[in-house]
Amino acid sequence: MTGEIKIAVIDDHPLFREGVSRSLAEIEGFMIVAEGGNCEDAIRIAETLKPDVILMDISMPGGGLEALRQILQREPEQKIVMLTVSEMNDDVTRALDYGAMGYALKGVGSRLLAEIIRTVSSGRTYVAPTLSAQLISTGGNSKQARMRRLTARERGVLELVAQGLSNKHIAIRLDLHEKTIKHHMTQILAKLEVSNRTEAALALRDAANNH
């Protein structure tokens, strides 16, 4: 079937991993292409299979956040959802800073998990509502906090956007493909919670002025 979302599940608890894989495989439109149990598995699967979405735990051998960081350095367009028990603000903000597109808590039902995967697959971000509220109440959603979610590469792209450069000219300047710049822009708009390039550039200016 064409149009299936290819998913990899990375978790060091085999029973949980198999349960998630089985639940998703039963839903039309999803295909499980790989399973893994540690940081090395996650990196290898991302590089060799390039699944549409990777579901990954934070607490696993080698570290889920480290796997996230390394994967997105090598494969910047890879979409990753952290599926974990951790509700710590630090874990959530670091995951978003590193470029995770989603942050969901274990215990989520298979139907909601399927919706989260579809959301992320379409290029939008998802953070569990309880965690979003928590971040806002602790100042994790201020302009500076949102700006801190950007990777160094995304920050560099945004600075060029603020100078008025088009995606094409940014690609030439950074020696990257134009589609990679488009992906970075999607991530930037989602992380800054703005809807266009002008608002993103203004957010950069405001964050600098208020720093």
From TrEMBL:
<dbReference type="GO" id="GO:0000160">
    <property type="term" value="P:phosphorelay signal transduction system"/>
</dbReference>
<dbReference type="InterPro" id="IPR001789">
    <property type="entry name" value="Sig_transdc_resp-reg_receiver"/>
</dbReference>
<dbReference type="InterPro" id="IPR039420">
    <property type="entry name" value="WalR-like"/>
</dbReference>
<feature type="modified residue" description="4-aspartylphosphate">
    <location>
        <position position="57"/>
    </location>
</feature>
<feature type="domain" description="Response regulatory">
    <location>
        <begin position="6"/>
        <end position="121"/>
    </location>
</feature>
<dbReference type="InterPro" id="IPR011006">
    <property type="entry name" value="CheY-like_superfamily"/>
</dbReference>
<dbReference type="Pfam" id="PF00196">
    <property type="entry name" value="GerE"/>
</dbReference>
<keyword id="KW-0597">Phosphoprotein</keyword>
<dbReference type="InterPro" id="IPR000792">
    <property type="entry name" value="Tscrpt_reg_LuxR_C"/>
</dbReference>
<dbReference type="InterPro" id="IPR016032">
    <property type="entry name" value="Sig_transdc_resp-reg_C-effctor"/>
</dbReference>
<dbReference type="GO" id="GO:0003677">
    <property type="term" value="F:DNA binding"/>
</dbReference>
<dbReference type="InterPro" id="IPR058245">
    <property type="entry name" value="NreC/VraR/RcsB-like_REC"/>
</dbReference>
<feature type="domain" description="HTH luxR-type">
    <location>
        <begin position="143"/>
        <end position="208"/>
    </location>
</feature>
<keyword id="KW-0238">DNA-binding</keyword>
<dbReference type="GO" id="GO:0006355">
    <property type="term" value="P:regulation of DNA-templated transcription"/>
</dbReference>
<protein>
    <submittedName>
        <fullName>DNA-binding response regulator</fullName>
    </submittedName>
</protein>
<dbReference type="Pfam" id="PF00072">
    <property type="entry name" value="Response_reg"/>
</dbReference>
